[in-house]
Amino acid sequence: MVRVAFYAPMKAPDSPVPSGDREMARNLMAAIGADGHRVDLVSRLRIYDKTGDLDLQNRLYREAATEATRLSAELPADTGLWVTYHNYYKAPDLLGPTVCRARGIPYVQLESTRAMSRLSGPWAGFAKAAHDACNAAQVIFYHTANDLITLERERFGDQSLIELPPFLPRSELPRPSRCAGPMLTVGMMRYGDKLESFRILADTLALLKGDWTLNIAGDGPARPEVEALMSSFGTRVRFLGLLSRDDLETIYSDAALLVWPGVNEAYGMTYLEAQSAGVPAVAQDRPGVRDVLAPADNPAPEYGAAALAERVDRLLSDPELRRSEGQKARDYVAGRHLMPNATRTFWSGVSSLVGEMS
Fold first, then answer.
1. Which residues, including other chains, have CB under 8 Å from residue 244's CB and lie 6 or more apart?
2. What residues does the Glycosyl transferase family domain cover (predicted)?
3. What is the pTM of this model?
């Protein structure tokens, strides 16, 4: 059994604020500990600067120095590995490299990105810290082909770069969908990229030719704007609010298809959830998103809402095509995106560091 120190500088896995980042951190902790290894959340110190605020960055450096000193002294003696999730220029790992040097512990990262273009400008210091933290990692697990581009270009020494596909925190697939109910959208209602996806979605709905209904699961500060975008569709669009995992699974079990453009999504857990239930996913063919979608005829963003509408119309008009694509998606998730695969991949990748296989 290996005792693992786990840290997520951007958001602690037990944060009360829901997000895909929090969800993936929780999933990773579960996967790492699935075979009986102990995973300790060693710090909840949030190192995150959204706007490029130098005063905030300086305060966080000071807080991190104090926390690193504490952890170097107090980390349990049998800790055999440190894992940091999502080190990047707005949320660099200011703890792991320092503590691991002090304690002689192997250091690995999950879903890290390098942003050399940020080494100047308001995040320059944080970008350099994130870059240095990447250099300190003996192994970096990446989730998408897009992340690999810069990780490989800036690879440090004989550092190992290992693909660990995004995954669902389950070992078996849920019951398959009937693919006969309303369409489904699942997305947090935030300003920026999320709201842009809702704008594209509204434009897509306006172009659909057949009869349709859509359920939207999710909530957030931009809900009034989302409701305004959907107001012209009347009762064809229904807002479900923020749903529990069990409630979402019930909705997936009936959904005809999932539609979500995916503007600047890192990958999008909702695509995996839908496909695991045999619900075909309609999205734009974007970096990150394409890493979690079963092969299908998803249009490039430059073709706009018209191409999305064409694909939705085709699926809505052909129940057999929906079921066929849904089954292909289900098989795809089963083979690549469930937790046992993540557990095997992780422990195989770090076995040489901890001196044993899981």
1. none
2. 196-330
3. 0.88
